[in-house]
Amino acid sequence: MSEIEKRQAAACALEEVRSGMRIGLGTGSTARHFVDLLGERVANGFECLCVPTSETTADQAAALNIPLTDLETIDRLDITIDGADEIGPGLSLIKGGGGALLREKIVAAASDRMVVIADSSKVVEALGRFPLPVEVNRFGLGATRRSLELVLVEHQAQGALNLRLNSAGNPFVTDGGHLILDALFGRISAPEALSQALLNIPGVVQHGLFLGLCKRAYVASPDGVRTLND
Ligand SMILES: O=C[C@H](O)[C@H](O)[C@H](O)COP(=O)(O)O
């Protein structure tokens, strides 16, 4: 997972943005490169208005003088550029390794087009090797966890359900003030059904399966950048 490859993918995505566009800014180490490159353009007079998908990205973009707004002030975006933890068939995705999945999904869904940037290690034949992040309300954690465990059994999960911890060993808290349970499936054979089953649990705020949202992915490898289209 070289930083050079991530930057190359980010540079390809930068070619998609035009002056005057409203742009969703993703979160993570790959999206960070895109924000850096956009910042260079803004410093040279490029005009855009951006919505960040996390406090971390907001801080980075603000430091680069990228004009920011939110989805209360505007309700649609032209494009969102974001990273992914896995890219599966039909550009289905797992996201949320950095805990930003809720805002990322809201921003992607409010965008005319979502473009993913990644290195080739993220491309998989079937989603599920990366633990699926499930953002849950703190209230009722035990009950929500129990319901989630039943869904894991129904969907033949090969691994466990783990409360995400931060580096200090305390529960990781998202920008929205929620917790994350990471569910290791191994192989997700029915993503749509799994998505619905997860969303049917009252304590689930959102999950990291992004289905039908991504239109294009720029995937970088030592051989160059491949374009995958939906
Ligand atoms: O919550 C984090 C996001 O979904 C990231 O876009 C995802 O985890 C990929 O991050 P990275 O580019 O650092 O691998």
UniProtKB/TrEMBL annotation:
Gene Ontology molecular function: any one: ribose-5-phosphate isomerase activity
Reaction(s) this enzyme catalyzes, per UniProt: aldehydo-D-ribose 5-phosphate = D-ribulose 5-phosphate
Active site per database record: 104 (proton acceptor)
Keywords: Isomerase
Matching Pfam families: Rib_5-P_isom_A
InterPro entries reported for this sequence: NagB/RpiA_transferase-like (IPR037171), Ribose-5P_isomerase (IPR050262), Ribose5P_isomerase_typA_subgr (IPR020672), Ribose5P_isomerase_type_A (IPR004788)
Ranges that cross the membrane: none
EC number: 5.3.1.6
Primary role: Catalyzes the reversible conversion of ribose-5-phosphate to ribulose 5-phosphate.
Enzyme class: isomerase
Name of the protein in its database record: Ribose-5-phosphate isomerase A
Family: Belongs to the ribose 5-phosphate isomerase family.
Cross-referenced CDD domains: RPI_A
Lineage, broadest ranks: Bacteria, Pseudomonadati, Pseudomonadota, Alphaproteobacteria, Hyphomicrobiales
Pathway field: Carbohydrate degradation; pentose phosphate pathway; D-ribose 5-phosphate from D-ribulose 5-phosphate (non-oxidative stage): step 1/1
Subunit structure: Homodimer.
Record-listed substrate binding positions: 27-30, 82-85, 95-98, 122
Organism encoding this protein: Devosia rhodophyticola
